[in-house]
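Model it.
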Amino acid sequence: MKVIGITGGVGSGKSEVLRLLEEKFNCGVIRTDDVARSLCEPGEKSYEMIVKVFGKEILDREGNLDRPKIASIVFEDEEKRKALNQCTHPQVYEWVRNKVREWRTENRYSMIAVEAALMDELKEIGVCESCWYVHVKPEIRRERLRISRGYSDEKMDAIFASQLPESVFFNGCDVVIDNNFDLENVEKQLISLCK
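Modeled.
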């Protein structure tokens, strides 16, 4: 059972590629952002570590992590961002490795896709045999983000400036999925890749 990593910038269409893999190719999908979110719920290890490092000031009235407050703290402080990542990344990687092992034992899927925003995260997890980059031209990404999420140009500028250059993905990934057209085109590429 092949394990692939899927990465790409915000608005690239990773979610649609993952949906197609799930629905049409019997692919088990792991979204690392969703895993991280669940591991940051009260009572979970990442939650406890974050509260220990940042204090109870980062909790909302219900005792959950106040994500916007945390984002504002780590956005401008590299050391605090690294500290936050240390509270979450190792637990996410361990969870993913365990889930891949479980699914392989059960033999329930034809393949497994692990989605992460950063290529380095996929390498750190260490279970992916291949890394696929979902590529979209910046102007198309902008239009999609404007329509689907209502992002302003300023917000998109900030997001794009904080992301790695495309050359890093082109050089570091084995496969580039061209998502500049329609889903039918993407599906054709996936059919060829999943033979």
